Amino acid sequence: MIAEANTDTPRKSYNVRMKNARKVENMAKGNALKGKPDVVNPHVRFDGGNVAPTATPRRRFLLYTKNAMFLSIISLAWFTAGAIESDRLYMVVNISGGTQVDSYPISYLSAVPQTGWSDEFKTSKIVLRKIEPGSFTMGCATNEVGYMKYLQEDPYSFDAVRHEVKLSKEYYVGVFEITQRQWESVMGTRPSWFSVESDYATRPVENISYQDIRGVTSIPLASVITNVSANSFMGVLRKKTGIRFDLPTEAQWEYACRAGKSTALNNGRNLSSMVTDVSASAVARYRGNSGYAGRISRDWGLAKGTAAVGSYAPNDWGLYDMHGNVREWCLDAFSMLTVSTSVEDPVTLTNSGWSGFVVRGGGWSDYAHALRSANRHDFAKADSSSVFCGFRLACAVTTDGTFLKISYVYDDDDRLKSIVYGDSAGGIDMELTPAGNTKKIDGWRAE
After folding, report:
1. How much is the pLDDT for 103?
2. What is the pTM assigned to this prediction?
3. Are both 244 and 352 inside the same structural domain?
4. φ, ψ for residue 90 (rounded to 5)?
C-alpha cells in the first residue's frame, strides 16, 4: 500500500474539533437544565446524580461548569494531539547569516504559509517536508513510453526492474531544489552557469559535483551516512545545524517524487510523446519549454535554461521540480538495479563496474522521456560537474523520531579531535577520528 499524504491542516483539524466540542457542550448544557443524564457519562447526572431534578439553579450551574471544564480539557487534548502530530510537517533552516555565523537556527511549520512559499524560503531559508514511512513500487513498466527507447539508445541509463521498496523511517526532503543564493549563503561561492544578476538567486544551483556537495569520492561508500568532508556543502551545513543532512537515497527520491502515483509523471499522467508532451509541460522545465536548441548562453534570463524553483505545479506532497529544471544528484552509486524482490531502505554502495553516481528527474535540456519518475542516469565520477545537474536536501529521522545528530569534539588547542554521531535524544552511536577510523561506542546502536 502506498502511503498517502495527510491533507488535513491543523486549522482544519482545529475547526472540526471545536465544532464537535461545541455540539457536545451545548447538549450537555441543555441536559443539565433539563436534569437529563450526562452525555459523557450516562450514569451521572449534571444535577448531582441522585439529587432531584428540582435542584437549585446555583447547584446546576456549578455542576454544569465542572463538567463543561472537563469537556473543554478533553477537547483541548484532542486538538493538541492532532497538532503535535503535524506541527513538524515542515523543517526550516535559516541560513540568512551566511558564511559569517557559527550556527543556523532550525524551526518548524505545521502547514504551508497562507501566502504560499515566498522567495525567502528559496534564498535565505531552506524548507524541507516530512515524508512518512511507506512502501511503493520502484522502477518502470516495460510498456511505459520512454522505457525501451531510452534503454537502447543511452548506454548510461537503465530503468530499474520493478520491485517493491519499503522505507521504514520518516525523512525530510527539500520542497525545492537548492538554489544559487542558498549555495552562496552556505559556501560563499557562485559556481552556476546561469548567473544573470537580476534573477540568479532563485534558480537552482548547477555546475556543482557530488564531491562539492559531499566531498566523498571513493567507491564503495563504506560509511554512507557519516562520511562527508568538512568543507563540502553537507559538511558545512551539518556543522552549523548539528543535523546529518545529506542527499536523498535513490529510493527516497523516487518515493518522494511519485507522492503516491504509479504513472510516469507525478501529476497522474503518462507520456504520449518521447520528445515534448503537454503533461510534462505542466510540471517541468525541460527541452520542450526551455528554449534549448543545442547551444546555451550565460546571458539567458528565466525564459530560457533553468527556471526559478517552484515555477511549475508541485506533486501531491507539495514538492516542486521533481521533474525537470536540473537533474538531481542522489546518494547512491550507480548500478543496474536488476533486483525484482522486495527490499527495505535500500542504498547502493558499489557501482558494479559503472563509474559514477545516480542522478534523477531529468533537466531543462532533456526530452520528455527523461523526466519520468523511474528515469535514472549514471553521471560520471564524483568530481564531474555540469550545467545540467543540481540537487535537493534530505534529512533522515531515526525510528524513535529523533534526528541524526552530530557533535564536534576539540582539544585544548582548538583542534578537531573527533566527530561524534548520534541522535537528538543524546545517544552516541559512532565516533569518527581524524584518521577516518570509526568505532562503535558500547551501549549504543550504530545506525
Report:
1. 96
2. 0.72
3. yes
4. -125, 135
